[in-house]
Write a structure and sequence with these properties.
Distance between the termini: 32 Å
Structural class: alpha/beta
InterPro entries: DUF7730 (IPR056632)
Shape: globular
Order of helices and strands: HHHEHEHHHHHEHHEHEHE
Strand content: 5-15%
Organism: Cercospora berteroae
Number of strands: 6
Domain DUF7730: 21-216
Pfam families: DUF7730 (PF24864)
Protein name: DUF7730 domain-containing protein
Radius of gyration: 20 Å
Number of helices: 13
Helix content: 25-40%
Amino acid sequence: MDLQASEETPTPTESEASEATPESPLLALPPELRTRIYHYVLGGHNIHISSHMVLHEDLRVMNTPSYGHTYWDNTQRFLTREQRVRFFYTLCDVPHDDDEAYKQSCNPRIGKKGQHSNAVAPYRERHATCLKHLGPFTSNSSQDNLHLQFLRTCRQIHQEAALMLYTDNTFSFLREKDALHFLELALHRRQKRALRSIVLFEDDIEENRYYAKAHASKDFQNMLKLKEAVLIRPDPEEDPYVYRNLAEELEELSKVPEKAWEAVYDYYCDHPDLADVSFDE
């Protein structure tokens, strides 16, 4: 996975760009129309992301073009000298499913015996076809890939559209530490600050408590454009105190200047539980 293509991939020289611009029907369009086209090509997706650890001794095999780019941690906050990490992504098959689940959970139908008659399937079940692609030995079909090559066509398109990859998509992480690895190791500062919507799915609460305590304020601060952060809890019977700690991590987002904590919504206990944090425009 290389979502850094919008920053790291060399773009044409200025002379090459100037020569290409007059002949481009796309660049002859008004800016507002180009923006709509950029969004259609790059945006509107829910992007599932996971990470996989790679030991240094395995890099000779793993660090190949077919395997993809691996990242290392020069600060050693997350990884030791012997470790690398590779990120995997796939585009969501059911991008509107979570919104529908949220609406159902806010307006449950209660049967005569007190049970919910419209219970919502758990997150992993709803996104089963998406998550099966997230692993070191799986591959995405072409329709599951972002069109990053579009950003390599010329300098002007790169300058106008590169950050739309982050402003116009939702980034959904299988684990909290996947999110922290991605924010810290894979993104440049401008990319991180451009994010508007993230989802944290806590598959193993106990495994991720270290990250919640140690890195919350540092990793989620200064995300000035962030408008929505969602925490999905897989087990409603888990100790509420554990989830409260994780919710406090999302609350750090409200401390961004000129943003206001708006609301926290909690699903019914036999539905997927979410803490939905929204910010005023």
